[in-house]
Amino acid sequence: MTDTDSQTTPCWIYRSSKKDEMYLYLANENDFAGLPEALMKRFGNPHLVMELELHPDRYLAREDVSKVINNLKTLGYHLQMPPNLVPDLYDGETI
Fold first, then answer.
1. Domain YcgL spans what residues (predicted)?
2. Helix (H, G, I), strand (E, B), or coil: what is residue 11?
3. What CA–CA distance (Å, rounded) separates 86 from 95?
4. Domains and CATH numbers, the chain
C-alpha cells in the first residue's frame, strides 16, 4: 500500500434533478438521511453519476480536492454549485 492509497477517501457523486451542473458528493453511498432538508428540497432527486476514490493528488475540474475530502470527513457531504455563467448575448445583441 502506498501513501496515496492510505489517504484515499471514497465518495459517490450525484447530479441534481433540479439544477444543471449541481453535484452532491457523499461519503457513503445513498446516505441522504443526515443531509439538511432544505438542501435536498433544492437539489431534487439525486442521480448517481460515479464513484471515486479521492486523494490529495487527484485533480478535480471545478473543486479543490482537499476541501471536498475535508467536507466528506466532517459533514459527510460536499455540494458542488454550478459555475457562474455569463451569457454572451442579451436580447439577441452582443455585448
1. 9-94
2. strand
3. 11
4. 3-82 (3.10.510.20)
